[in-house]
Write a structure and sequence with these properties.
Distance between the termini: 77 Å
Number of domains: 2
Shape: globular
Bound molecules: FE2/S2 (inorganic) cluster
CATH superfamily of the largest domain: Beta-grasp domain
Order of helices and strands: EEHEEEHHHH
CATH architecture of the largest domain: Roll
CATH class of the largest domain: Alpha Beta
Number of strands: 5
């Protein structure tokens, strides 16, 4: 005889995703990665190991990089989530995305969203990271294509471009 297991209770979740507040009823045991992919439709959040070990699912939670596959969605109530989909502005790649493209930091691309979000978290708290600091920040992100050299170079390029942009005078108005 098939046993009926109790369904997990649902709760109302309010959180800001890529700058927009949304409200959804979610099961108490729903993982953030599944919520973002299946409810919010943000499939740039990749699921590799599904156990907190590969970093493919990395997103920013209040600006800090976290593995969304081991984070409960309800723990994010009232907080801000950023995913790879939130980086580009008006169809233009942001500096990290562009640097990954130019440096060939992407091969199959599966690890790339998680790598970029981990790098974004790093550059926000440390705009001038050393190579060791970059490699340490990426230590939870695995690339099966082993493109680490180009990934680190891309992050250094992006950091430099962001610093240059911060000191350049604004273009004169016509
Ligand atoms: S899928 Fe989340 S850490 Fe691997
Ligand atoms: S580019 Fe293929 S896993 Fe990293």
């Amino acid at each position: 005889m098939q046993k009926d297991y109790p369904q997990p209770r649902k709760r109302l979740l309010q959180l800001k995703v890529n700058g927009r507040w949304r409200e959804d009823a979610v099961a108490e045991n729903q993982l953030l990665a599944d919520y973002l992919r299946e409810v919010a439709g943000l499939t740039g959040v990749k699921i590799g190991c599904d156990g907190g070990e590969c970093g493919a699912c990395t997103v920013l939670l209040d600006g800090e990089a976290v593995p969304s596959c081991i984070t409960l969605a309800i723990r994010c109530d009232g907080r801000a989530i950023e995913t790879i989909e939130g980086l580009a502005r008006q169809g233009r790649l942001d500096r990290l995305q562009r640097a990954f493209h130019e440096r060939l930091g992407t091969q199959c691309g599966f690890c790339t969203p998680g790598m970029i979000m981990a790098a974004e978290g790093l550059l926000r708290r440390n705009p001038r990271p050393t190579e060791l600091e970059i490699r340490t920040a990426l230590s939870g992100n695995l690339c099966r294509c082993t493109g680490y050299h180009n990934i680190v170079a891309a992050i250094r390029d992006a950091a430099r471009a962001m610093r240059d942009a911060a000191v350049s005078p604004a273009p004169a108005m016509a």
